[in-house]
Write a structure and sequence with these properties.
The complex is a heteropentamer of chains A (about 240), B (about 400), C (about 260), D (about 325) and E (about 300). With about 260 residues, chain C is α/β, with parallel strands linked by helices. Helix content of chain C is about 40%, strand content about 25%. With about 325 residues, chain D is an all-alpha fold. In chain D, helix 2 packs across helix 10 and helix 4 crosses helix 8. The chains are: A alpha/beta (about 240), B alpha/beta (about 400), C alpha/beta (about 260), D mainly alpha (about 325), E mainly alpha (about 300).
Chain lengths: ~240, ~400, ~260, ~325, ~300
């Protein structure tokens, strides 16, 4: 396997006012892998993802496939190949399922690719096809998460940032979603997964970073992290 | 941080105080120097705000009046030719700005008399200030009776004059005109209820008309800024009047008349002095043909003064002077006449001379003051709109 | 004695059931924990108790008084205060004022006394200010008392929120994820703080938390919510062994 | 120490006394031009208006756009009193009473906006205040007793520099006391987070009623001073344009700050006079100045900071800090 | 007779004309509010500019109606976009109220700038030959027909645009949650500019039609109608395009109905009192919904 680094983050810091939400973080994501960032609420995970996709200003460098992303607009970054499934899903409630998907195809110019991806999404989530005319605000939590992931697939790109996909979902649904994430990964996408559900995240990930108050405190392969007693106590509840 | 704000605040206050006073002082110096051979008159006009057209006419006529006089060598005062200088201030159509304009003209510009403001809302507060400062003021256009009367004491103000007739007189003339000349038995009225002038005209018309045996079949209103009168006109149409009295500003008249025609109303309209602007002809086109209205003056009058005024004004400003322009011109004429008669440019002398003016030949007819009030004795002109022009129809003198 | 007694509490958002048939009894001076995955209805429960939302059905009794239909400020006056998951201190007020404003119900002076700066106003203000200082001192916030709350670091704002809640002189405090975003050292400090709230101020605590160390460290009783449904309850040591809880909250260990 | 304390106690009455004496002598001597004096009086009246609107829009964070209506109610009420009483020749000492009555009437009207504000917020509340402005203006136009569109006449010139100073100072002192009391803190807590405020026991209904009433009280006072300065009031003086003018002064100076109101009212009023030589272009330049100011100082001139004289001594240590609203 | 059928039909036509003009302008307010939560107080003045540009196009360039309309719309679009760029974009992250005050300032600037150039009201020449058809006691004029037809067409097109096109979806997405929109790869700034362009286009078109119906124009004509259109937008539920349309027709109906049944002097009192009452019962307008706050 060609182990190329696709995303490289160096000394990334973000502050809101005087508060440092992220404090000098450095990490890499290797192509084709699932990398997870775990940590409690407020540890800075979401901020980190928002910085990577250009939504908030930051210090330090983020490069994607060797291209420095600093100063680029989210629009440029997204069309450059990074997709971001935000925390809380952020689907557009007043739009139908189909409209949500169509909208996320903004950067897709080719009709053929659009149809191809649509088929792919509906094969992953047959439920979405059943509900494609329904207002997305009326979907259940799990369906909304499917739609959010579906949108990211539609946008395309080689790296997918996933922010807490398991939030508010029943265990059964969480399993289903994580299975889909694995599938997506197998289809060739690199995934950067932010999760609170450390057990599940480490279960599917190749590599993990542990965040605490804006800093990385541990990192390692999933075996290393799962074996670390401190992490087991703090995050795995065992 | 605190100190910085401290400094900003102190600085801002100091700067603004210094600025106002120096602005005042520098003017004072120059006026002292120039006082020897220049008479300064203040003009307060509605250059911005709700009736900018009135202000524009007033400003044009004022500049023309002064230019004409100065070009002819100036005004002879006590054997010496003196030039007139005017200072024009904007009151934005608002009472407080009219007051500060007046105060500024009096205390800083040291004017001997003030022409304006035209709207009663500005003229009344201004008259209070000129009364205290003992400076004569002539409002060209404010027809509100209270402009020249001190309501508290119930007697006329000493320093407030006007160049126009009163609303009550005009309203009576129009009601009688509708009754006797137009032979109307039923009249409908549509007016701007937010305008003190127009509401006054409507009320007087209604009272006089009913007193003389007529009936008012519809009494409809709108407020300033309205452009759609269809609902009111539909009501009027249903009341089948013989005449529709329309005390409306000339900018509204075309809309009302056109909308009436679109609704199939054929009843003739009758207007007041608020119609009197050459703009009306442009705005209204053929729609107003055959209607009568009252005015302060007629641009088609055969009087030589009027003919010259209209010619000069058209040459300068490329449009026919409206009544505000004519009245402003006359107001200046009255002041010049008074200065000449008094042989002095002192405010008190001017005031006394104005109150004694008899039979001044103005653009708007003969103007006399009784000496008791600031209201002139002068006639109403009734005009007919015909073939895109205002034609003199009749004069009604008190 | 039952301080808070909730029976049959159910709430719907649109057609979605956020919480259903919830039962809870908190005794005076007790520390009670509520856990469950994100979105399982824990914060909704707090919002129902403090009347941010109105319950679809069920009843909430506090000190024997029905508070289900009461307004939020009355409920607070009765003795329930809370903190918020995503800190909601008044950023535009100073730290001191955040604590003083929470004593709104404790003021005796009327509006005229305030407007004209009369004696009773000054006396009351002095008392309230003193109380605020005491609270700030005991939570080590006094050195930042004059700063705007919006300028405090994250951790201190969490404490400020707790101080603000205590300033209302409650007999029950609802803490919504007090240790979110904290590391182990900070969590142990928070554990001490929560214990203090009960021991020093005699206030019962109902706490939502994901940090197991905090929950296990302080809670005398636990309730586990999943999808708005109570799936387990009882003593912490029993709950953590419950299979359903492990499955729902901690995530199943094995995946196929 | 004791001397200092008692000196502090006397500071407020002392400033008031000295200020009154000073303004009295200034207006009776010819030290200051009448024009400057008039402009200063406008500044004072505008300051009261700005400060009173700042209470609602700045401190409480609502968006009231019809503030001129309260001015109108104060103006008409006080004018009716003085005109009726003066016809009985009862003497000018009735004037402060008339001003206060005008304020009270206006405060009662404030209740009419306060009550809908429990349910209606933001832009919808803005429309409620706007509608209220239009309704009252239309009522005045239709009531002959109030002079209709012709305006109310016969008002004596009772407003002098002394009274303007006195009421400006009272407005400043009273509103300062309010802002630094628990009510004031409650007001700011509503702006910052209304839900949190009510949960933390702030009686938001009471606070809203107090704030709207106090705000409209002082707007009424300003209206009364205005009426007795210009001796003429008509519905047009209190239209939506007047309301807009007050709004502009509030945001120009800076919200949530007494210093902001002082600066907003003086800069606006003085600038309007200073730009007079520009004639018709004055009203073109004025809004441009405003737009540039907002772009370069989006939080107004003071930007949420307060001038230290306006902070009670007990509160002085509170650090001033720019922050986002 | 007063309330005869033909009278009612006549008044109904009046309502349609007035209501559709209010609705067209209200849409401009509501769309900008949807994307930026900003009350664009300058919109009434863009409408006024539309009338003036139409006047110039008709008088100076001697253009017939349709080309004059197109020229007007193009110019107002430029003005709308320029206002957004110069006055609002620098304040995108500033407190919301600063932008509102800036909008007020821009409005006053436009009014007085126009006034400085043209102090007298202007008359629009009769570009469209007006004909009146009389049917019994009902009179229908060609201008009335044109206004209603064009307004309704524009509204149908806009409704289609908002509901069916990608631009419309982006618009609705932005009003729902602006923060997530960039993540779809959508250039938010461009959409906002386009929204301003569209709003200004509708404002300009409304200006043209307004000046057809009421051919006297002056620099302050946008103030009152602007406020009324804004009220319409709020009544409908601000941010909602269909709400703005409904609100416009409701305001038109109320204003005319009051004149029909009560002395017209009471029109403002009754109309605004009704508005007051409506907001008490529906604090978020007719189509508006409260956004729940996450605690």
């Amino acid at each position: 396997m060609n182990k190329q680094i696709i995303l490289s983050v160096k000394d990334l810091s973000v502050s809101y006012g005087n508060i440092n939400a992220v404090n000098g973080i450095t990490f890499d994501v290797t192509e084709g892998q699932i990398v997870t960032l775990i940590g409690a609420n407020g540890a800075g995970k979401t901020t980190l993802l928002r910085a990577v996709s250009g939504l908030i200003p930051y210090e330090g460098t983020v490069s994607f496939s060797g291209i420095n992303l600093k100063g680029k607009t989210p629009h440029e970054i997204i069309s450059g190949g990074i997709t971001h499934v935000p925390e809380g899903r952020a689907i557009f409630g007043t739009l139908t399922v189909m409209e949500n998907l169509e909208l996320s195809a903004w950067v897709v110019k080719d009709k053929g690719i659009y149809r191809e991806r649509l088929r792919h999404i509906f094969s992953l989530f047959p439920k979405l096809e059943e509900r494609k005319k329904q207002l997305s605000g009326t979907l259940s939590g799990g369906e909304q998460q499917m739609l959010a992931i579906g949108r990211a697939i539609m946008t395309g790109g080689s790296l997918m940032l996933l922010d807490e996909p398991s939030m508010g979902l029943s265990p059964l649904l969480v399993k289903e979603i994580f299975k889909v994430i694995l599938d997506i990964n197998k289809s060739g996408k690199t995934i950067l997964l932010v999760e609170q559900n450390a057990n599940m995240a480490l279960h599917i990930a190749n590599y993990g970073y542990v965040l605490e108050t804006g800093k990385i405190v541990f990192h390692g392969s999933k075996e290393v992290l799962s074996g670390n007693p401190k992490i087991r106590e703090a995050y795995l509840g065992v | 941080m605190k100190n910085k704000l401290n400094r900003i605040l102190m600085l801002a206050m100091a700067v603004s105080l210094v600025l106002i006073s120096t602005a005042g002082c520098s003017k004072k110096d120059s006026s002292v120097k120039a006082e020897a051979d220049v008479i300064k008159i203040g003009v307060i006009a509605e250059l911005t705000g709700e009736i900018p057209a009135v202000g524009a006419s007033c400003k044009n006529a004022a500049e023309m009046a002064v230019k004409t006089l100065n070009d002819s060598g100036g005004l002879e005062v006590g054997g010496k030719k003196m030039k007139i200088k005017i200072q024009i201030e904007d009151n934005a159509g608002r009472a407080e700005q009219a007051a500060s304009s007046a105060q500024k003209l009096i205390t800083q510009e040291k004017v001997v008399a003030i022409i304006g403001p035209n709207s009663s809302g500005g003229a009344i507060p201004t008259s209070e200030i000129t009364e205290t400062a003992k400076i004569p003021m002539i409002t060209p256009w404010s027809t509100n009776p209270k402009t020249t009367i001190d309501t508290r004491l119930g007697k006329p103000k000493r320093y407030a004059f006007r160049a126009c007739y009163l609303d009550s007189f005009q309203g009576q003339v129009l009601a009688l005109f509708a009754k006797n000349t137009l032979h109307a038995k039923k009249a409908a009225i549509l007016f701007d209820s937010s305008s003190e002038v127009l509401k006054g005209q409507a009320e007087v018309f209604k009272n006089t008309f009913e007193k003389n045996g007529g009936s008012v079949s519809a009494y409809e209103t709108y407020t300033q800024g309205d452009r759609n009168f269809s609902a009111q006109l539909t009501n009027i149409k249903n009341s089948t009047p013989d005449v529709i009295f329309l005390p409306s500003y000339y900018s509204d008249v075309p809309l009302e008349v056109q909308q009436a025609h679109r609704l199939g109303i054929t009843t003739p309209f009758l207007g007041s002095d608020a119609w009197a602007s050459s703009e009306l002809l442009k705005l209204c086109g053929k729609d107003c043909d055959g209607y009568y209205f009252s005015s302060h003056y007629s641009a088609s009058s055969k009087s030589p003064d009027t003919i010259k005024f209209v010619k000069d004004y058209e040459a300068l400003y490329k449009n026919t002077p409206d009544d505000v322009a004519a009245l402003t011109f006359d107001a200046f004429g009255i002041v010049f006449e008074a200065i000449k008669a008094a042989g002095s440019a002192e405010s008190e002398a001017i005031r006394n001379a104005i109150s004694k003016i008899k039979g001044y030949h103005g653009v708007t007819g003969n103007i006399s003051f009784t000496g008791e009030t600031g209201d002139p004795v002068k006639g109403v002109v009734i005009l007919e709109i015909k073939n895109g022009a205002f034609n003199w129809y009749t004069d009604v003198n008190p | 004695m039952d301080l808070l007694k909730i029976t049959g509490l159910t709430h719907y958002f649109g057609g979605l059931r956020a919480i259903s048939d919830f039962e809870l009894t908190v005794n005076s001076g007790e520390i009670y924990g509520i856990i469950g995955p994100n979105g399982s209805g824990k914060t909704t429960l707090f919002n129902l108790i403090t009347a941010v939302y109105r319950a679809t059905s069920g009843s909430i009794l506090f000190k024997g008084t029905e508070i289900t239909t009461m307004s939020s400020d009355r409920i607070n006056a009765l003795g329930i205060a809370r903190t918020f998951q995503n800190i909601r201190v008044f950023n535009g007020l100073s730290v001191l004022d955040n604590v003083r404003v929470a004593q709104f119900n404790k003021f005796q002076y009327n509006i005229l006394e305030a407007l004209f700066n009369l004696k009773s106003f000054k006396k009351d203000e002095a008392l309230v200010t003193e109380r605020a200082w005491e609270l700030l001192k005991s939570f080590n916030l006094d050195h930042r008392a004059y700063d705007l709350a919006g300028t405090l670091p994250y951790g201190l704002r969490r404490y400020l929120e707790i101080v603000r809640a205590l300033a209302t002189e409650p007999s029950l405090v609802l803490l919504d994820e007090p240790a979110a975003g904290m590391n182990q050292v900070e969590i142990s400090k928070m554990i001490e703080t929560v214990k203090d709230i009960r021991n020093k101020y005699g206030v019962a605590v109902l706490v939502i938390e994901h940090q197991m160390s905090l929950i296990m460290g302080i809670c005398e009783k636990l309730k586990v919510l999943d999808f708005g449904v109570t799936i387990a309850g009882g003593l912490p040591k029993d709950v953590r062994k419950d299979a359903k809880v492990l499955e729902a909250y901690l995530g199943s260990e094995v995946m196929d | 120490m004791k001397v200092v304390a008692s000196a502090k106690k006397l500071a407020v009455p002392a400033i008031l006394l000295v200020g009154c004496a000073l303004s009295c002598s200034v207006s009776n001597s010819n030290l200051v031009d009448r024009y400057v004096e008039l402009v200063v009086m406008y500044v004072g009246i505008n300051f009261i208006l700005t400060l009173s609107l700042n209470l609602v829009n700045g401190y409480m964070g609502e968006f009231s756009v019809g503030h001129a209506v309260f001015m109108a109610i104060g103006a008409y009420t006080s004018a009716i009193i003085t005109v009726k009483v003066f016809s009985l020749s009862l003497g000018p000492w009735i004037f402060p009473l008339a001003v206060l009555t005008g304020g009270m009437a206006s405060a009662l009207a404030g209740l009419l906006v306060a009550i809908p504000s429990f349910k209606i917020r933001g832009d919808y509340l803005a429309i409620v205040t706007l509608a209220f402005n239009m309704i009252v203006k239309s009522i005045i136009e239709n009531v002959d007793f109030l002079g209709g569109p012709r305006g109310y006449l016969g008002i004596a010139k009772l407003t002098s520099l002394v009274w303007v100073f006195f009421f400006s100072f009272m407005a400043l002192w009273v509103i300062r006391n309010f802002v630094y009391s628990n009510y004031g803190r409650g007001v700011v807590s509503i702006r910052e987070d209304e839900t949190a405020a009510i949960i933390m026991g702030v009686d938001t209904k009471k606070v809203k009623i107090m704030t709207f009433m106090l705000s409209s009280f002082f707007a009424g006072v300003a209206g009364a001073l205005y009426a007795h300065l210009l001796q003429f009031i008509s519905p047009k003086s209190f239209d939506i344009l007047k309301s807009t003018e007050i709004l502009i002064m509030v945001y120009l100076g800076g919200i949530g700050s007494i210093a902001g109101s002082v600066l907003g009212a003086s800069v606006y009023t003085v600038l309007l006079e200073l730009l007079r030589p520009l004639g018709i272009w004055r009203m073109v330049i004025m809004p441009l100045v405003l737009v540039f100011l907002m772009i370069f100082r989006p939080k107004g001139i003071t930007g949420l900071r307060e001038f230290k004289w306006f902070i009670p001594s007990a509160e002085k240590k509170i650090k001033l800090f720019k922050h986002k609203v | 007779m007063r309330l005869g059928l033909s009278y009612l039909i006549q008044q109904f036509l009046n309502i349609l004309q007035l209501g559709s003009l209010y609705a067209l302008i209200a849409i401009g307010y509501t769309m900008v509010y949807g994307v930026l939560s900003l009350i664009n107080f300058a919109h009434g003045d863009v409408f006024m500019l539309g009338a003036f540009i139409f006047f110039l196009a008709a008088l100076w360039l001697k253009l017939p109606f349709i080309p004059a309309l197109i020229v007007t719309v193009c110019v107002t679009v430029c003005v709308g976009v320029l206002i957004e760029r110069l006055a609002y974009r620098p304040l995108r992250n500033a407190p919301k109220m600063s932008a509102v005050i800036t909008a007020l300032g821009v409005g006053v600037f436009l009014e007085n700038f126009t006034l400085a150039l043209s102090p007298y009201p202007q008359h629009i020449p009769e570009i469209v030959k007006n004909r009146a058809w009389v049917m019994g006691q009902v009179t229908v004029s060609s201008i009335q027909t044109i206004i209603i037809a064009i307004s309704v067409t524009l509204m149908v097109i806009l409704d289609f645009l908002v509901r069916k096109t990608r631009f419309g979806m982006a618009l609705r997405a932005i009003s729902w949650d602006i923060s997530a929109v960039p993540l779809m790869g959508i250039p938010v700034n461009r959409i906002i500019s386009q929204t301003f362009a569209l709003g200004a286009a509708l404002g300009g078109a409304a200006g043209v039609m307004y000046s057809l119906a009421y051919p006297v124009i002056d620099p302050y004509m946008g103030i009152m109608i602007g406020w009324k259109a804004f009220i319409s937008a709020v009544v409908g539920g601000i941010g909602n395009v269909r709400g703005a349309m409904t609100g416009g027709f409701i305001l038109g109906t109320v204003e005319i109905a009051v004149t029909m049944f009560l002395p017209s002097t009471y029109r403002d009192i009754v109309a605004f009192t009704l508005l007051f009452v409506l907001l008490i019962f529906r604090p978020h307008g007719i189509f508006g919904t409260a956004r729940s706050v996450k605690l």
